[in-house]
């Protein structure tokens, strides 16, 4: 289908509003993040003692749940001045602010029961649980706490679990836990797979046994030093960063990942990751992306990723390549890459992604390539942090995962068999339907 015709196709969600595929909506933009302080006096005191230095906070991760938007604010280059690392976006007296999530106490630097450094999180829409990865390090210098996974119940705003990751798996002094996906088995979250963008390997965690383990492969390292150089708006930047972005296929059969300092997209079966087995001969190079990328996400139809050197978001049309190449998913090559949105100025560094239950793809753009020198780009009338959403008519890989992966007992045949629900909720609600 012609791309222009594709982008002009309109859809009706429910019976309320007509949406257009591929049309970006700017939801928020900022040059400075303003937090929801308990009192004005506490804010002023924090500014005075420099526990809050406004220009040091930058949004990175994003997830949504039932209309609410959650973001991470990693304590990356500085050891102070960033009072909050995980927040919910709220409106207070007509002004958009960042409310510490779940509360101020959970942001306490130096308290190992609290959050120290959050880059990414994942929300399971089936349970309302948020899984947060915390590296335990601040400013890449203060190795304050062990790395951990913290689980919050978004329905009650309470912490329900904390899993500390052992030093022999996640180094307390070197790790850069960057992104994660959840793996459903028999109707529930069984595993998490986390990228370590410093040491260059995958961290696996089994929620049933409480076991943490690491998985290494040459594909998780920087491929070619020349590939780590990217040109963004006429400037060259070097990011020799290993494994970074990660995505889970909607059938929970494969994990996709790539290094930040490279173009190649890799695929590995979850059967290998679940068994803590060696990844030798299990990893497959799917093909080269149009650009280096940071975050990525798999929906029910497409694999989305940021094209950093192009200031754009692309998607891999997996279904089309399977049909045209007449190959199965474990052999198909990355060929059909479609530009979804692009903006040379306002979409610099499309960082992380989320898919909501209404068919919208959300993402953050934050000019991360120049974050080391905040004074150079913090201009009140020129925001550098933005939250976008784009209607794509599909939900995320976790949509209805509990029912799709539950094994149901067939009393007639006296055997167990998997019940896979293929319908997309969005498709069922649409008055008109067009295949993308």
From TrEMBL:
Chief place of localization: secreted
Signal peptide segment: 1-18
Keyword DNA damage recorded: no
GO CC annotation: extracellular region
SUPFAM superfamilies per record: Calcium-dependent phosphotriesterase
UniProt keyword annotations, A-Z: Secreted, Signal
Record's keyword annotation contains Nucleus: no
InterPro entries per the UniProt record, alphabetical: 6-blade_b-propeller_TolB-like, MRJP/yellow-related
Family label: Belongs to the major royal jelly protein family.
Protein name as it appears in the record: Bee-milk protein
């Amino acid at each position: 289908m012609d791309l222009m015709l594709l982008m002009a196709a309109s859809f009706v969600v429910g019976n309320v509003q007509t949406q257009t595929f591929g049309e970006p909506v700017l939801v928020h933009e900022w040059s400075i993040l303003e937090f929801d302080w308990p009192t004005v006096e506490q804010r002023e005191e924090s500014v005075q003692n420099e526990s809050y230095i406004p220009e040091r906070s930058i949004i990175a991760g994003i997830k949504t749940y039932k209309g609410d938007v959650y973001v991470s604010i990693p304590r990356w280059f500085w050891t102070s001045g960033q009072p909050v690392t995980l927040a919910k976006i709220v409106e207070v007296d007509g002004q958009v602010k960042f409310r510490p999530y779940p509360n101020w106490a959970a942001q306490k630097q130096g308290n190992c029961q609290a959050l120290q450094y959050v880059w990414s999180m994942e929300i399971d829409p089936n349970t309302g649980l948020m899984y947060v990865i915390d590296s335990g390090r601040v400013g890449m210098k203060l190795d304050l706490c062990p790395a951990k996974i913290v689980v919050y119940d978004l329905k009650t705003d309470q912490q329900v679990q904390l899993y500390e990751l052992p030093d022999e798996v996640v180094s307390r002094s070197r790790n850069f836990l960057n992104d994660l996906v959840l793996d459903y088995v028999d109707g529930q979250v069984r595993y998490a797979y986390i990228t370590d963008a410093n040491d260059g390997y995958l961290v696996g965690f089994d929620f049933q046994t409480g076991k943490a383990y690491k998985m290494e492969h040459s594909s998780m390292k920087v491929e070619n030093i020349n590939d780590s150089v990217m040109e963004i708006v006429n400037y060259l930047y070097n990011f020799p960063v290993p494994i970074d972005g990660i995505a889970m296929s909607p059938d929970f059969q494969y994990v996709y990942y790539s290094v930040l300092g490279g173009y190649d997209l890799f695929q590995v079966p979850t059967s290998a990751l679940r068994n803590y087995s060696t990844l030798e001969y299990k990893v497959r190079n799917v093909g080269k992306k149009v650009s280096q990328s940071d975050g990525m996400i798999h929906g029910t139809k497409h694999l989305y990723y940021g094209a950093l050197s192009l200031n754009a978001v692309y998607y891999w049309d997996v279904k089309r390549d399977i049909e045209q190449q007449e190959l199965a998913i474990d052999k198909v090559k990355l060929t059909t890459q479609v530009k979804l949105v692009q903006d040379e100025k306002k979409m610099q560094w499309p960082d992380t992604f989320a898919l909501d239950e209404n068919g919208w793809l959300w993402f953050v753009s934050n000019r991360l390539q120049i974050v080391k020198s905040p004074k150079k780009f913090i201009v009140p009338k020129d925001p550098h942090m933005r939250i976008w959403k784009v209607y794509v008519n599909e939900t995320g890989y976790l949509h209805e995962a509990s029912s799709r992966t539950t094994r149901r007992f067939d009393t007639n045949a006296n055997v167990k068999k998997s019940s896979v629900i293929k319908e997309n909720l969005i498709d069922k609600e649409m008055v008109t339907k067009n295949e993308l």
